[in-house]
Automatic annotation (TrEMBL):
<feature type="site" description="Interaction with substrate tRNA">
    <location>
        <position position="132"/>
    </location>
</feature>
<comment type="subunit">
    <text>Monomer.</text>
</comment>
<dbReference type="Pfam" id="PF01715">
    <property type="entry name" value="IPPT"/>
</dbReference>
<feature type="site" description="Interaction with substrate tRNA">
    <location>
        <position position="107"/>
    </location>
</feature>
<dbReference type="InterPro" id="IPR039657">
    <property type="entry name" value="Dimethylallyltransferase"/>
</dbReference>
<keyword id="KW-0547">Nucleotide-binding</keyword>
<dbReference type="GO" id="GO:0005524">
    <property type="term" value="F:ATP binding"/>
</dbReference>
<dbReference type="InterPro" id="IPR018022">
    <property type="entry name" value="IPT"/>
</dbReference>
<dbReference type="GO" id="GO:0006400">
    <property type="term" value="P:tRNA modification"/>
</dbReference>
<dbReference type="GO" id="GO:0052381">
    <property type="term" value="F:tRNA dimethylallyltransferase activity"/>
</dbReference>
<feature type="binding site">
    <location>
        <begin position="18"/>
        <end position="23"/>
    </location>
    <ligand>
        <name>substrate</name>
    </ligand>
</feature>
<feature type="region of interest" description="Interaction with substrate tRNA">
    <location>
        <begin position="41"/>
        <end position="44"/>
    </location>
</feature>
<keyword id="KW-0819">tRNA processing</keyword>
<comment type="similarity">
    <text>Belongs to the IPP transferase family.</text>
</comment>
<dbReference type="InterPro" id="IPR027417">
    <property type="entry name" value="P-loop_NTPase"/>
</dbReference>
<keyword id="KW-0067">ATP-binding</keyword>
<comment type="function">
    <text>Catalyzes the transfer of a dimethylallyl group onto the adenine at position 37 in tRNAs that read codons beginning with uridine, leading to the formation of N6-(dimethylallyl)adenosine (i(6)A).</text>
</comment>
């Protein structure tokens, strides 16, 4: 054995339901911390679907480089495996430019696959949710230091490289040992990459969130969402992957002449509210998130900035 080599890319991830200010926060943080933005949204990859997927505008993309936007035609598939592969490539390239990768998105399954399913040490160590849950509960009951101490007993080399409060990475190191029987530190002899992520979650009061979602839908309609949906429908959208997205599928009945536009818009609002609730449930149960409410208190941005600064000082 030549000795363990740890290579962890620092990555900020901004998550949360639609209409809570993820794009605005990403632009602020990207300019402050010399970052480039990677879309973590499964729909923004499609060309021609700009309004319904709430892509960053051309002006916003001039301010900060954006990646994984407009990389597929609407008749092409884009899977979670595609996302993980493409996102890993972008993270590596952005980091090598001495910039900070910043992932923004609401597709929880895609983001979790990237953060928890990263290929470690040449072994395809897939996530074990049971083990992860067990040690997440352990950390909640006994504290982060006790969790770190457990890792130190089974793999002191790994513990020496991971900060006490980086619960996700500590649990990942324990998980690799539990699944494979081999130390996490030993698996880095081949210089494989890992992600050291700070996950920032945005949310606000439910009634405020739902009001903002409805306003967002009305704004999208004013900007031309119906024309976008009509184009997608004419291109065979009913049978295409992006045609199943919220904001499009609800308008297809109107375009076919079987439903009113008022009902179609109401369906978009209802489905968007339900999706926001599912997103929040996913992020709370599946990911280690630090939550902030920038809608109710704009001063929270200072807390976000402080959290980023503190995290950047930690060794990866």
């Amino acid at each position: 054995m030549k000795g363990a080599v740890f290579l962890a890319y620092k990555v900020i991830v901004i998550v949360g339901p639609t209409a809570v200010g993820k794009t605005s926060l990403s632009l602020v943080l990207a300019q402050k911390f010399n970052a480039e933005i990677i879309s973590g949204d499964s729909m923004q990859v499609y060309r021609g679907l700009d309004i319904g997927t709430a892509k960053a505008t051309a002006e916003e993309r001039k301010l900060v480089p954006h990646h994984l936007i407009d990389i597929r035609e609407i008749n092409q598939h884009f899977t979670v495996a595609d996302f993980v592969q493409d996102a890993r490539k972008q993270i590596k390239e952005i980091s090598e430019r001495n910039k900070l990768p910043l992932i923004v998105g609401g597709t929880g399954f895609y983001l979790q696959a990237l953060l928890d399913g990263y290929n470690l040490g040449g072994n395809d160590v897939r996530g074990n949710q049971g083990i992860r849950n067990k040690f997440q509960d352990f950390a909640l009951e006994n504290g982060n230091e006790a969790l770190w101490s457990y890792l130190n007993k089974i793999d002191s080399a790994a513990a020496a490289q991971i900060p006490v409060n980086n619960v996700r990475r500590i649990i990942r190191a324990i998980e690799v040992y539990e699944v494979t029987g081999h130390k996490f530190s030993e698996q880095f002899d081949q210089r494989d990459e890992e992600i050291d992520a700070l996950v920032i979650g945005l949310n606000t009061k439910r009634n405020v969130l739902y009001e903002r979602i409805e306003q967002r839908v009305d704004q999208m309609m004013q900007e031309g969402l119906l024309d976008e949906a009509r184009w997608l429908f004419q291109e065979g959208g009913i049978n295409l992957q992006p045609g199943k997205g919220i904001g499009y599928k609800e308008l297809f009945p109107f375009i076919e002449g079987t439903e009113s536009l008022v009902n179609g818009v109401a369906e978009i609002k209802k489905n968007s509210r339900h999706y926001a609730k599912r997103q929040l449930t996913w992020f709370r149960n599946k990911m280690n998130v630090r939550w902030f409410d920038l809608v109710s208190d704009e001063a929270e941005i200072e807390k976000v900035t402080s959290a980023v600064l503190l995290w950047l000082k930690e060794k990866g």
